[in-house]
Fold this protein.
Amino acid sequence: MSNACFEPLLKRRSIRVFKDEEVPLELVLKAIDTARYAPSAGNKQPWRFIVIRERSRIEALAKILRYSKPLLNAKVAVLVLASKDESPVSHMVDGSLAAMYFWLALHCTGLGAVWIQTLRNVNEVLELVGAPENYVPIGLFAIGWPGEQPVAKERKPLSEIVFLERFGEALKQ
């Protein structure tokens, strides 16, 4: 078993502070291209990605979304959407899988990002980016070159989160 595969997964951190350096569109598109390979129910691929570089639009998103301060110094934002029509039952999961693939791919390019929750202000977000009502904004990513190196936060032990066969059946190692 190779630890090389686990390393990017374990080293990814939420980056909220960015350097004042431009982000090449090619790197963002490379990450989106990778995200296309995320799994989806029935291979519906109901996701869409909106790359936002216009400063006024990024600032407008920061005004309507809670906990979105990192957007204010991000060079790029990417909104991940999922179509309720294309995948009526699993659009939220499908879109979330694509968003996670995207985030990990950004990390692999050397870019930093933080996920910003968008489910409180759905209509305002959709209107701001001109997306139809049949889409759900899964998440917004503030993106830039990392201006910080956060340390890993403590994680719950396996014994608290893993059960054998039935909920509540303790994991014995």
Remarks:
- The domain at 12-147 is CATH 3.40.109.10 (NADH Oxidase).
